[in-house]
């Protein structure tokens, strides 16, 4: 299993557009719309740099069909095109995340989110 990534505290203003940075480019199957993907991830809020969620602690990646709206738009756009074995950093502005409503008391309104995602499998 890949090691849980550490995310450095963000500096400067939050971006207004989705930022996608390949940390490691994978060489396995490509994540395309309509395929089932398995993603290990760590998420932090841009405002505090505090971790709000991570699949690593649960010991299993998040599995979902890409392109059908099961996850936030920033993930839909940011995971697409990754290859298995890859690690990608996504900085997701509120309009592609949880917007004005936030999420479950863990993510505040209009929060920019930072994820480091490892693509584990494409089925």
Mean pLDDT equals: 95
What pattern of helices and strands is seen along the backbone?
EEEEHEE
Number of helices: 1
What shape does the CA trace take? globular
Return Rg in Å: 13 Å
What is the helix fraction of residues, given as a range?
Answer: under 10%
Strand content: 25-35%
Distance between the first and last residues' Cα = 18 Å
Low-confidence segments, given as residue ranges, are: none
Structural class: mainly beta
Question: Could you tell me the number of beta strands?
Answer: 6
Characterize the biggest β-sheet: 6 strands, antiparallel
Secondary structure blueprint with pairings:
Layout: E1 19-24, E2 36-45, E3 51-54, E4 62-65, H1 73-79, E5 87-92, E6 113-122
Antiparallel strand pairs: 1-5, 2-3, 2-4, 2-6, 5-6
